[in-house]
Amino acid sequence: MIPKECKRLAEVDFPIAVVSKHSAREKSIRHGHPSTLHLWWARRPLAACRAMLMALLLPDPCDPLCPKEFRCRAKEALLGVPGWNTPRMSKQVKSNEGLRKALLAFIGDLANWDKAANNDYLSTARALVRAAHLDETPLVVDPFAGGGSIPLEALRLGCEAFASDLNPVACLILKVMLEDIPRHGLELAKELRRVGGEIKKQAEKELAEFYPKDPDGATPIAYLWARTVKCESPHCGAEIPLMRSFWLCKKPNRKRALRYKIVHEPSPPQNGCSKPSPSGRGQGEGIPNRIGGARMLAVVTLHPSIQGRNYRLPTDRDYQPVWKAQKWVKAILDEWERGGRKGLCPVPDEPIAMNEIRRVSIPLYGATTWGDIFTRRQKQSLFTYAKAIRGIETTTPCSRPCSLALDRLLILLSAHCRWKPTGESLIDMFGRHAIGMVWDFAESTPGFGKENTFGTWIERYAALVDLSALQRLEPGQIQQSDATKSYLPDESCQVWFTDPPYYDSIPYAHLADCFYVWLKRSLPETVIGFSESLCPKEGECVVDRPHRLSNSIKNEEDFERRIAEAANIGQKVLSSSGCGSIVFAHKTTEGWEALLSGIIGGGWCITASWPIATELSSRLNARDTASLATSVHLVCRPRPEDAPVGDWGDVLRELPKRAGDWMERLQGEGIRGAYLVFACIGPALEIFSRYRKVETADGSEVNLAEYLEKVWEVVGRTALEQVLGTAEARARNSVAGALEEDARLTALFLWTLQSTNGNGPHPDPLPGGRGKRGGIRRG
């Protein structure tokens, strides 16, 4: 067992640049990657989680209290890695400093997705963990598990894992990934291919007449629609399609576009046209010559003898299946009504909550229930698959994975998907962390193209199971619970590692409702967590932005209180020799202050801070916004009960040197701009959080907000010195400090630009500044 006072590797050093490279690269990996299992917002890259976990689990060989047996076993394990048993490495690991460097190099290598699936590297990683925890297998706890990256990597490293989340959709993802796949292994892959194939065959047979092929043998893969507005003038009534662009294909070697034609009424209106009113409901409904709803603009097809995608105008033949689907849906709803409305409505009738219209804005345009975001034909398709999945025998473990495959169809089978002319493909409804109104949309076919078919996703899941089975993972423990409530005995885990919700950035429960309503209709009634109307929201630890239609009371104070309660529970379940880590990547200082206040108020002391580039700057959510591409991993320990009271003067004297040294270190790792600013919070808080409280000379307590103001000031002054870039400028520290706040902000802005001139990530606005679309603001 690691002694209580012994430092962990994560508290002294970390291979930031290498892990950042592998984390960013991982976003483009699809085959066999767990992220393909189901969408979950702001999921942490496995590379960052795996590397940080290793650093949290291993002691620092240079620490005098590091067990000698660990050093011996670690040397043996590292020299067993293929290609590492060289005279140079054998010489390096003889010293404690050399062993530390070798461990950090191994952690960097292990962050590579290709190495994570290599049994030689996995065996070494597990041997290192066993060497550090000889008495018992370490337990890793994540109470905000979400997409499951942290507990999955804990299992991969040979640890036990406890993962919980309040959201039932997240818990279902966790159960499939951390329970079903490890427990059933290759048997599950075999059953998935068999059962999934049967469902696909059955559904395609039932839906074939609603997605007919063209007379020339071409297969439609998407129908492009535009919602319409109707002129309200009694003398007009003209139908106007709402379109962003007429482009269908914008590839350099071939371009396709629609050409519009204005059809004038035989009798022009005498009084002109009044303001038209858009309709959000009734997407894709009706037959030719109707007014209102949506108009089909083009059909995208694949022809066996013609390369690439082809485009044609719609005909009456394309509208007939739409009309038939309307009748079909009406018939099953009428049958449900005649039966006394027993059980769930065949298609989702659950209301869309109004508290998050900034992220789920469609109720403002008439879509008031979750069924309203689908066309009739889409409802029919999803119902058909859901019914088939619900009929799976309870003796097979396929029910939950098949339901997740239905959700994969769902995000590209709604009336809020867009057509991408540059790639000739669909952009799913979650192109960003929101469901916004889309006036012209693309209706995908559910199972007849080469991509986005139910069978395709089943095969991807089976491949994921095949890969996981080779790694011999043990099942984890999953629980649907509130992170602010007790979930484990005191001092029961060795690592408390979590990625809590991002303040007001993502309304997880509101977005997950879209999946929840269909999962209820596809899962057996016995599945725990799916008995309520919608996902639980009252206990969710987020901030709802207020507006006149909202009745939410989840404000900044509520978020800070919940984080503090969760942090307090975390330090209780952590053993006396354990270590914790909290991930955060919010773009506003208000978000940071709320999180940090909660952590410190929950009894934690921050001991290190590592910024890891975990996001691609090219992602849709990062374009022209203040989204950070770097996630800061705060390393923490429970603060001793006998922690002293700090002197404000001593804290302020220590801050500049600590922040300056950290900036210099991180710039050597290629960290600049906003990322470097936020990364400096950790070292600054090491000074502040080690004390029970900090007081001024007259006995007044200094709160965190006051201290962070000083942190921003010191960081700005240091940035100014670096922008000036001369020894004389650095010597004139008093001059830099005397500059007005606006001058310091200008320096920060100039400093941020460095990341665009080099190879750094996309720059973001900085604390105290105002960036595009709101930017980062001061608290």
Please render the helix and strand layout as text.
Layout: H1 16-26, H2 46-57, H3 68-79, H4 87-92, H5 96-110, H6 113-116, H7 119-132, E1 139-142, H8 149-156, E2 160-165, H9 168-207, E3 219-230, E4 239-241, E5 247-251, E6 254-257, E7 277-278, E8 294-303, E9 306-312, H10 316-338, H11 376-390, H12 399-410, E10 418-420, E11 425-427, E12 440-444, H13 454-470, E13 477-480, E14 493-498, H14 508-522, H15 556-573, E15 574-584, H16 589-601, E16 604-613, E17 630-638, E18 645-647, H17 648-667, H18 673-679, H19 681-689, E19 693-695, H20 704-724, H21 727-731, H22 733-738, H23 741-757
Parallel strand pairs: 1-2, 1-14, 2-13, 14-15, 18-19
Antiparallel strand pairs: 3-4, 3-7, 3-8, 3-12, 5-6, 8-9, 10-11, 15-17, 16-17
Helix pairs in contact: 1-2, 2-5, 2-8, 3-5, 3-7, 9-11, 9-12, 9-13, 10-11, 11-12, 11-14, 12-13, 12-14, 15-16, 17-19, 17-20, 20-23
